[in-house]
């Protein structure tokens, strides 16, 4: 993953940091890409080599698109 710089987030981050009496609150919003960068790729390959699996053995982390479509609400049709 790679940190994606955003001037919009920096403006929000400035307002998320404030002091209240004896406490200092530091809030931050960050965005990251989901594409693997060089170090992530090397780690992925070394972990796969240790586990003995190949890239085709990976499982999806999100449900398939067909499952999302089948769970969507059906339109209600009524006749007068």
From TrEMBL:
Annotated GO biological process: negative regulation of transcription by RNA polymerase III
Alphabetized InterPro entries for the sequence: Maf1, Maf1_sf
Stretches with biased composition (Polar residues): 62-80
UniProt region (Disordered), positions on chain: 48-80
Organism superkingdom: Eukaryota
GO cellular component, one term: nucleus
GO molecular function annotations of the record: RNA polymerase III core binding
UniProt family annotation: Belongs to the MAF1 family.
PANTHER family: REPRESSOR OF RNA POLYMERASE III TRANSCRIPTION MAF1, REPRESSOR OF RNA POLYMERASE III TRANSCRIPTION MAF1 HOMOLOG
Protein name: Repressor of RNA polymerase III transcription MAF1 homolog
Species this protein is from: Ixodes ricinus (Common tick)
Upper classification of the organism: Eukaryota, Metazoa, Ecdysozoa, Arthropoda, Chelicerata
